[in-house]
């Protein structure tokens, strides 16, 4: 599976089989976390199974069962750090997907009291990402949860503001916005809009509004999906950090 297929296939997975990751999958995630931490200054960690074979207790309201592995996404409390956490966290999520695994970003619906994590000075655990194998058939309750949250998705056109509607924007921009639309965001708010002042001008990523603070993480996730799709279209470039910053 390549990374574009991973974007197409990824969903928030809220049910897992009892199977553990194989050593190759676990090691690939550990190595990616080492690269991410070295590159970004973030403090991501990976935890495997406890004695009962599961790694973390998820809230039964949302999850059918507990996964065999999770990533702890740790960063300082700061909008730019949280944006980076989104960007690099999604890089990890899409790698997991390419390894044949399923994931979910989780900010709140898990048991923090029994969660393993190392925190440095000023750091916080912002999200966990349960990682494991999706069952062949996702239970009805979890399918219903996802359909009801995802059913409130914005229209693709609402994620773009330019001199023309999205359908008239350069093809590569349309592909990038489509890749962002398919991505995860906290309570599916999709708070990022891509702005172009003219059709050949730079694209900026803006936040429609900031209500919970999780929008900064969503901004990083959206920027990562946009960048992956741009490179796939043969458009090189990278983002500057911050709301309102441009893809250059
Ligand atoms: C930063 C962040 C935090 C999230 N927190 C939770 C959570 O606590 N519980 C949960 O069930 N889903 C959580 N989600 C998953 C979103 O609900 C999900 O991404 C969104 O509904 C879109 O659905 P999809 O990922 O299946 O496409 C979170 C997603 C993000 C990006």
Using only C-alpha atoms, the radius of gyration works out to 18 Å
Low-confidence segments, ≥5 residues, pLDDT <50?
none
Overall number of domains: 2
Main sheet strand line-up: 1-2-4-3
- In sequence order, what are the helices and strands, one letter per element? HHEEHEEHEHEEHE
Number of strands: 8
Form type: globular
Class computed from helices, strands and strand pairing = alpha+beta
Mean pLDDT: 98
Quick tags:
single chain, 248 residues, alpha+beta, NADH Oxidase, 2 domains, 4-stranded mixed sheet, 34% helix, globular, binds flavin mononucleotide
Would you write up a description of this structure?
It is built from 6 helices and 8 strands. It has 248 residues and is of the alpha+beta class. It has 2 domains: 3-141, NADH Oxidase, CATH 3.40.109.10; 152-234, putative nitroreductase (tm1586), domain 2 (NADH Oxidase), CATH 3.40.109.30. The strands form 2 sheets. It has a 4-stranded antiparallel sheet. The protein has a 4-stranded mixed sheet with strand order 5-6-7-8. Helix 2 packs antiparallel against helix 3, helix 3 packs across helix 6 and helix 5 (171-181) packs across helix 6. The protein is globular and about 60 Å long. The model has no long low-confidence stretch (mean pLDDT 98). Flavin mononucleotide binds at residues 11-12, 14, 62, 104-109, 127, 146, 149-150, 184-188, 214, 217-218, 221.
